[in-house]
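thought: fold this chain, then report.
action: predict
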Amino acid sequence: MLKERSGSVADFGRSQGLFTQNGNRLIMNRSALLAFSAATLALSGCASIVDGTSQTLSVKTVANGQTLPGAQCALKSNKGTWFVNTPGTVTVHRSYDALNVKCTHAGYSPGVLAVKSATKGMAFGNILFGGLIGAGVDMSDGAAYNYPNLITVPMQPTPAPTSTTQANTSQPTS
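observation:
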């Protein structure tokens, strides 16, 4: 016979009909096992709970293969607009839509980039384990998507005025 102290989980389980005793073993009944499994699966698949709807990104600007510090960048999606100076980090709201990035720096042409989001693998698990409602929530609030953790924006120096351009602009026209 299985010896257990009074008030144990096994005593509670037996009194509620969750466990039966077979010799020296306690066996969970099928309906209790099914309920436990369903609860575990339902709580394990939701991207909103695991990662949330926000993501922290690093943004840097480069020119001629070198890091270009001090650019002012605006990141915009259907969920909002965020600002960061490079190199830096910013927390954005996840979305299916692309993140449009525009960086400016004195002496450089603006760097413009559209960063696509990707569907996270756990979003597909949510369809299997959390059902269509959980997947729909994660897709609508953006939790099912990720942007790259590092966004690198290329920038080009603005061309210096040439001597013929300066000569043409300094002469009066008649």
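thought: worth noting. The first strand starts at residue 19 and ends at 22.
final: tokens above.
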